Amino acid sequence: MQNEILLVAESVSGEKGLAQEVIFEAIESALATATKRRYSEPSNIEVHIDTNTGKYESFRIWEVVEEEEFEDSGLHLLLEEAKEKNPEMEIGSRIEKKIENVEFGRIAAQAAKQVIVQKVREAERAKIVDQYRSVLGELVNGTVKKVTREFLIIDLGENAEAILPRTELIPGEVYRIGDRLRAVLQEEERENRGSQLSLSRKCPEMVGELFRLEVPEIAEQVIEIKAIARDAGSRTKIAVKTNDNRIDPVGACVGMRGSRVQAVSSELGNERLDIVIWDDDPAELLINAIGPAEIDSIVLDEDKQVMEVSVNKESLAQAIGRNGQNVRLCSLITGWKLNVVDKDIVKGEEESQMVASLDTLENYLDVDKDLASVLFNEGYTSLEQISTSSKEDLCKIEGFDEEIASLLINRSKEALLTLTMEISSGSEDKDNDLLSVESVDIALALEFNQKGIKTRDDLAELSVEELCELITMDDEKAAKLIMEAREHWFQEDES
Predict the structure, then answer these.
(1) What domain count does the chain have?
(2) pTM for the full model?
(3) Is residue 348, in this structure, part of any structural domain at all?
């Protein structure tokens, strides 16, 4: 019996080119599986083989757990029970009990054989993955060996295989047994089954690797690929940078009469390839990437990583692209969220906001239009900004002295107090006051008031679309305001 185990380990190891330790682990697992069948209840069995003599011992294991983690008496013991057996036991400890061995030659054989075969296959796959680990992420050639509904099995040569899931094929591609192909080699972690080599033709790295083959300057690191955004089978944007100012990176990638870029595109099923100049400035990079559309202005929100992009009406469709493809790829290549809008609409909104701000300053500060315009142009667009500013800051404005600055600050404070009282009086219930909403300040409350939104409930009953039509703001902010206004509804339901 003991000799039989040693002979099996030696023969399988020699045949498969695997370490004997791997074979012993497979036999241990097979013996443990066979032993478990003795018990009607769940059990945790471990078998340990002496690799020198072939002798083996079997143990049943219980884990010491807390009461809430207890699942089955065949697997777990509570701490109190465990301490009765051994006072030194603690949560997480193991209790082992030596049990009778099953006979190696009498194992319900088919099951044991399956376990051993499975373990050996896993070990073989792990060995192959280790051999190819140095070229993971690179382009490899292979031949289609088998085609199934879910994936293709690709022969990489030297007894190595990889799977190519159909989800990783370029849309519209069809391969048959014997066809050759190129794809990017990856490592796939399979649950409880170790690692396996897999391939992808859909990933962005596929484009980069093909350019690396076609453009010597990239292979020599004279030109660097900085970012790739891909919609496989349709369009890809690739941002490149030169490390030698004498070389045009775009021209080098395009090649003589477009030969290089055409070679890459042909391999990808005539996928459209946009090569753009990389820039560390995200706004400049966007300008390069969004072409041929022309940008009128860009406003960056660095905290939220959002760019507000305004374009001419004629360029709007180009900037967005079919089904939003162009703006989506530009967003991926810059790493910023993009909001593309018609510049005429933006201009109109800015003008209406300016008119509203000027009217507020004129009416509540009791100043003429010229003075209100001066304040607006200096960045003082609201009563709050003026009320919280210092005399010294206001005196920096040409023509302003301490007397004017003090007068404007006092009038702005009085106006805010008046407005607060006006807004509060719009609701008999103080808790229904607009100012009870966390993100609503006096300026926003005033704007709401002018649009007929008098109370918190008025705001809560609006949809995001309705609010954005009344007040200029993005969907995210509108949704936040509405949810804050509705909070008291949920609190009432809970109570």
Answers:
(1) 4
(2) 0.57
(3) no
3-state SS assignment for residue 51? coil
Q: Which residue has the tokens 């005539």?
A: 270
**Single-letter amino acid, residue 89:** M
Pick from 252-261, 298-307, 379-388: least confident? 379-388
Residue 85 inside a domain? The answer is: yes
The answer on pLDDT for 108 being more than 50 is: no
Which pLDDT belongs to residue 152?
Answer: 92
Q: Residue 130 corresponds to which tokens in the numbers above?
A: 């280790």
Structure tokens, 457 = 């409930």
Q: Please, is 232 exposed, middle or buried when counting C-beta atoms within 10 Å of its C-beta (0-12, 13-18, 19+)?
A: buried
Q: Mean pLDDT in the chain?
A: 80
Q: What are phi and psi of 40, to 5 degrees?
A: -80, -25
Measured from the Cβ of residue 215, the count of other Cβ atoms closer than 10 Å reads 23
- For 60, the 3-state DSSP assignment is strand
Say yes or no: 231 and 189 in one domain. Answer: no
Q: Can you read off the two tokens belonging to residue 290?
A: 């969004």
Q: Return the closest-CA partner of residue 228 out of 243, 244, 212.
A: 212
Using one digit for the tens of pLDDT, what is the confidence trace for 359-374? 777 776 777 777 778 7
**CA 452 remoteness from chain centre:** 41
What pLDDT band is residue 434 in, cutting at 50, 70 and 90? confident
Q: What CATH number has the domain bearing residue 8?
A: 3.30.1480.10
Q: Please choose, from the candidates 140, 294, 289, the residue with its C-alpha nearest in 3D space to the C-alpha of residue 228.
A: 289
- The rounded distance, in Å, linking the Cα atoms of 80 and 424 is 64
**Cα–Cα distances in angstroms (integers) from residue 339 to residues 151, 300, 477, in the given order:** 38, 10, 14
Identify the pLDDT of residue 7.
Answer: 72
Residue with tokens 């007929």: 452
| 109: confidence class by pLDDT, cuts 50, 70, 90 | very low
Task: Please say whether the beta carbons of 34 and 107 come within 8 A.
Answer: yes
Q: Which of 271, 254, 263, 261 is nearest to 169 (CA)?
A: 271
Return the structure tokens found at 474: 């993005």
Instruction: Provide the terminal-to-terminal Cα distance of the chain, rounded to the nearest Å.
Output: 72
**Encoded tokens for 271:** 């996928």
